[in-house]
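Students often ask why inverse folding is considered easier than folding. One informal answer: many sequences map to the same fold, so there is more than one right answer. In these notes we will look at a single instance of the problem. The structure comes first.
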C-alpha cells in the first residue's frame, strides 16, 4: 500500500539555550511517532513565508495541525484581553495559509488543540481567549499536573459522526487548554462536547475538504488508549 505523506505544521523555539541561543524549528515527537505507527510518512513543515504554503501543501497528501501557542485574537476581530497567553503571529500567518491551501486543494486535515482552534478561525469562527470568559465553565480543561497519558474529563460523541466510529458515545479524553471555541464556523459541525458544553470535536459540514478535529491531545496517549491510536490510523489511511 502506498504510504501517505502527512505534513505536520512545525513550531519555533526562540533563543534556545540548547543551541547556543539560536532558534529551533520543531514539532512534538509524539506526532511524528503517532503518524509513523499509523503507517504514514511524517514531514515537518517549517514556519516560513505564507506565500510558500501552496508549494508545501503540494508536497503532502494530508495536513496535521498540532497544538501550541495562543492565537492572535485580532484574527477573529477581538482586542487581546488580560488572560491571553503567548502569541506567535508568524506561526498564525503561515499555518492559516497552510490551512487555506489544504482546503482549496481538498487535502484532508487533522486539527488538534491549537490547530482545532485555528481552523475554526480560518473558517470564520471565534474563541474564548480564556475559559474565565465562558459563563458555564465547570470542568478542569487544563489537567496539569496530571500527565497526558491519562484521560481525565468525559466527552459526549455525536452519533453518526466520524468520531463515533472510533469512540464510545461517552468517552474520556485528556485536556490541556485554557481557550475554547466560542462561535463555531458555519462550515463545521460539532461532533464532541465536554460536560460543561464546550466543543471538543468537529468535522466539516460543507466544502471539499475532509476534516477531523479534536480539542484534546491524542498524540500524548495513543500508546495507552486504543481509540486515540485508531484516530491516527483513520486520519492517515482512511480520511
Ligand atoms: Mn477539554
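Output (designed amino acids):
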Amino acid at each position: 500500500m502506498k504510504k501517505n505523506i502527512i505534513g505536520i505544521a512545525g513550531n519555533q523555539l526562540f533563543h534556545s539555550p540548547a543551541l547556543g541561543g539560536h532558534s529551533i524549528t520543531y514539532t512534538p515527537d509524539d506526532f511524528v511517532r503517532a503518524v509513523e505507527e499509523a503507517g504514514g510518512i511524517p514531514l515537518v513543515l517549517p514556519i516560513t513565508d505564507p506565500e510558500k504554503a501552496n508549494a508545501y501543501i503540494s508536497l503532502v497528501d494530508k495536513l496535521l495541525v498540532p497544538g501550541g501557542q495562543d492565537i492572535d485574537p485580532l484574527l477573529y476581530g477581538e482586542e487581546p484581553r488580560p488572560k491571553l497567553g503567548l502569541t506567535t503571529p508568524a506561526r498564525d500567518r503561515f499555518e492559516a495559509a497552510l490551512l487555506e491551501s489544504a482546503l482549496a486543494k481538498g487535502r484532508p486535515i487533522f486539527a488538534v488543540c491549537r490547530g482545532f482552534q485555528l481552523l475554526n478561525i480560518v473558517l470564520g469562527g471565534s474563541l474564548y481567549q480564556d475559559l474565565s470568559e465562558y459563563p458555564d465553565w465547570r470542568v478542569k480543561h487544563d489537567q496539569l499536573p496530571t500527565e497526558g497519558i491519562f484521560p481525565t474529563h468525559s466527552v459526549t460523541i455525536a452519533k453518526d459522526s466520524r468520531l463515533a466510529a472510533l469512540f464510545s458515545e461517552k468517552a474520556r479524553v485528556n485536556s490541556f487548554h485554557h481557550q475554547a471555541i466560542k462561535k463555531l464556523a458555519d462550515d463545521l459541525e460539532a461532533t464532541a462536547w465536554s460536560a460543561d458544553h464546550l466543543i471538543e470535536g468537529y468535522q466539516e459540514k460543507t466544502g471539499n475538504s475532509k476534516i477531523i478535529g479534536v480539542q484534546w491531545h491524542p498524540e500524548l496517549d495513543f500508546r495507552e488508549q486504543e481509540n486515540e491510536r485508531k484516530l491516527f490510523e483513520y486520519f492517515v489511511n482512511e480520511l
